[in-house]
Amino acid sequence: MAAIRPVRATNWHVDVSWQHQPPKATVLHAQEIPEGGGGDTIWASSAAVFDLLDADLAHYFEKLTAVNTFIVSPKKSALADLLSGYEIPEGAEENSVEAGLARVREAAQKYPPIEVPVIKTHPENGHKLVFVNEGHTSHILGVSKTQSQSLLNYLYDLIKTPEVQVRFEWKQGDFAIWDNRQVQHYAARDYGAAKRRIHRITLEHDGVF
What we know:
Blueprint: E1 5-6, E2 25-32, E3 41-45, H1 46-52, H2 55-62, E4 65-68, H3 76-82, H4 97-110, E5 114-117, E6 119-121, E7 128-130, E8 137-140, H5 145-159, E9 165-168, E10 175-179, E11 183-187, E12 197-203
Antiparallel strand pairs: 1-12, 2-10, 2-12, 3-9, 3-11, 4-5, 4-8, 6-7
Helix pairs in contact: 3-4
């Protein structure tokens, strides 16, 4: 089980999908919620997104391979927020920029970019699902840069379709758990400078995805 860390998710993503075996599930525990509300978490079903695809287009996407990496983010300080399961360097404060960048450097050496199918099959229910995400997918292999971004943007727009989403309004003390393999999530940044603190636990891969 990974360490408990504060969570700041600012784009649609699957937790730790830059590893070959991402966590099976994710748990969030609300510690501090902005006064007056805000900071809702939104989940989107990647299986429902696949079901939105035209049959021929779905077949095309099933042939494609993408590259996942945590280096997608343009801000290294933000990259540290996407890492989970790392020991804090001795003598460093957990939430310091230095500690975050140290985790980024460590992960860059330990976890280089990986190739992943654009479409995967859930090992338990057999549903096909979209397995690319804004937070961790850099490009699609075998096509031009422009075509790659166009294809990814098309899938990302489907993920943002309200019909495949559920939105949760947090209250202090709330818990949420979901199947990280077939759900993408996003935290709404609509609370300005107010404090929002949510702890995350990621459950280890169980060898079937």
